[in-house]
Design brief:
Blueprint lengths: L5 H11 L6 H4 L26 E3 L2 E14 L12 E14 L5 E13 L7 E15 L2 E13 L16 E15 L2 E14 L2 E2 L5 E2 L6 E15 L2 E14 L12 E14 L3 E14 L7 E15 L2 E13 L7 E16 L2 E14 L5 E14 L4 E15 L7 E13 L1
Antiparallel strand pairs: 1-2, 2-3, 2-21, 3-4, 4-5, 5-6, 6-7, 7-8, 8-11, 9-10, 11-12, 12-13, 13-14, 14-15, 15-16, 16-17, 17-18, 18-19, 19-20, 20-21
Length: 425
Amino acid sequence: MTASMTPCAALVAAAALLTPAGQAVAQGSGAFERDRNVSVQERARPEYDAVGVRSGGLTIYPSLTAGLEYDDNIYATDANEAESGILILRPEVSVESGWSRHELAVSAWVKHRTVFEDSDEDTFGGYIGADGVLDFASETEIGGGASYLSDHESRTSSASPATAVEPIEYEVANLYGTASTAFNRLALSTRLDWRAFDFEDGVTPGGAVLEQDDRDRDQIDVSARGDYAISPATALFAEAAFNTRDYDREPPVTPITRDSDGVEILAGANFDITRVMRGEVAIGWFEQEFDDPAFDSVDGFDVRAGVEWFPSQLTTIGFTAARDVEDSGVAGSPAYVSSAASARIDHELLRNLILSAELTYSDDDYEGIDRNDERTGAGLEATWMINRSVGLSPYYQYMELDSSGAFQGQDYATNRIGVELTLAR
């Protein structure tokens, strides 16, 4: 997916958390199948899909994406805006198994961004990850994976210091495990995630250090879920999730303690109505308690939703909504409550040409300080699959931040237009 779709991708990922990785296994049984409808993006196109390179029971898929982008506000500021062209190169390789039982997938990529008007904005990052599933029985599976990401914070991030000479570099290590089983009308699944975040310090033009080590942390998330099928097309579910966030630095090294523990309880339904709609909607309650007595606990109404509507086989319209407690990275605030929503439409104009448009909105209410951030975004994209080996994707993206309060951030508006060329095997 091109850069123009990035904000919506975050929302889609949030909505996807409604269906734990393990539950995809349980959906293999008739009562939990959710493949009656196929979205425009998911539809198989064998004549345009990369074939890869076979090696025994594995298939290797190499690709190279090159992009040119114009950004009219590369520093994401509301004053002294600067524009620039940007060159993006991203080689990638993935390996997938083709075994009759069990699954293995490995992927890796590196990405280099060259900003023509300011070399200090150049970035280089990379990712490597592996996922596996052990199939013990027709309806019981255990999965797991590990990944490592090295990248740079976008200038549009609220936590990114505006006075930093270069974008802030960070690393994320992740381990996870899943388990699921299904019998008759009941499906059970659980997931455990561990993530470690490490941020590098920034530097101001005058040489002063912008401390970022107080953002380093370990985060553990545990969830359990049960689904009950009331029909072949609809299931009710309940889910409980717990998290703990443990920061590396504590007072007196830092002015506040950001450590916290949280719980989230959800109940809802997932459905797949033939030729009409599919998705998942849940409501519930969340609470995050902070170790620092200076901060009150945060609790409130919770919602997670991801719904796709199929007005025709050539058009998919998707909606997502999510409400979460996120770590802020902003001085004086341990976290913020994020309420976000998005709408997206994909239309298959031709078998090998998909037109997409999206709108995104989020409202971030910070704890401990007087600050509120409203973000709006819009994107347009065309995905042209020329053949199995070549694809072209022009895109446009608009992003805007309106920050308010005594500790408000820096407002900005950005326009980005670009095109990506992908070569695949």
